[in-house]
Amino acid sequence: MSDSSSPGLTRASTSFFQPSADVDGRDKPGHDGLERSGHKPDASSASAKGSLLLVNSVMGAVAAMFIVLDAGSARSASDLGEAQFRKNCAMCHSLEPGRNRLGPSLFGVLDRRAGTVAGFNYSSANKNSGLVWTRETLDAYLADPQTMVPGTLMVFPGIKNGGDRQALVEFLASQHD
Fold first, then answer.
1. What is the dihedral of CA 113, 116, 120, 126, to 10 degrees?
2. What is the full DSSP assignment across the chain?
3. Angle, to 10 degrees, between the axis of helix 135-143 and the axis of helix 162-173?
4. How does pLDDT run across 104-123, given as a tens digit for each residue?
5. Domains of the chain: residue spans and CATH
6. Could you tell me if 138 and 110 are in contact, meaning their C-beta atoms sit under 8 angstroms apart?
7. Angstrom distance (rounded) from CA 175 to CA 1
8. pLDDT for the residue 42
9. Is residue 103 a contact partner of residue 93, using CB atoms and an 8 Å limit?
10. Alpha-carbon span 104 to 126, nearest angstrom
C-alpha cells in the first residue's frame, strides 16, 4: 500500500518505510512504484531512497542494541543490587554469616524475623517489631526505616528510587546457603 504523503514509499510490516522501487528505478513486483505513477526516478529520489535505507539500517542497529542490552539485564540487575549494597549497606553490615559490624549480618536476611541475629544488640523497637523480612517488608524498610520501625537505631535516610531498592532486595535475597 502506498503512503499518499510520500509517493513511491510503502509501509513495511515493521512500520519502517521501505522504497517501493529498486535502487536502479525498477519496480519491485506487487508494489505501486515510481515508474507506474508516471514519475521517473532522478538523482534526488535516489538520494531520498539512500537516506531511507540509511535510516532503516540505523533503526535496525538500535533495535539490535536493545536486544543485546536485554540479554544482559539479569547480570546488570545483580550488579546494580550489589552496587546498592556497597553504596548503602556495606559500611555497617556484612554478608558473612555471624559477622556483625555496626549493624547485623545480612546473610540469610530473607524470611528471618527482625531482631534475631545472634550476638547483635538490637534496639527494643527492632526486637519487638514482629516483622519478618520478606521482599515486601525489606522494600518498605529500605524506603524509610524510621517510618517502618519507629525507634530503630539504624541511622539511614532510605533509598527513594524504587528500582534501586528492588535491585538491593533481590541481591539480599540471593545471599543465603
1. 50
2. -B-TTSTTEEE-TTS-EEESB-TTSPBPTTS--TTTTTPPP-HHHHHHHHHHHHHHHHHHHHHHHHHHHHHTHHHHHHHHHHHHHHHHTTTT--SSTT--SSS---TT-TTPBTT--TT----HHHHTS--B--HHHHHHHHH-HHHHSTT----------HHHHHHHHHHHHT---
3. 130
4. 999 999 999 999 999 999 99
5. 9-71 (no CATH), 73-173 (1.10.760.10)
6. yes
7. 57
8. 55
9. yes
10. 12
Supply 18's cell numbers. 521501505
**Amino acid at position 125, single letter:** A
**The three grid cell numbers given for residue 23, joined into one nine-digit string:** 535502487
In the chain, the amino acid numbered 162 is G
- Nearest to 154, CA basis, from 72, 93, 64: 93
CA distances from 86 to 6, 29, 62, 76, 80 (A): 55, 61, 32, 15, 10
Q: Compute the average pLDDT of residues 29-58.
A: 51
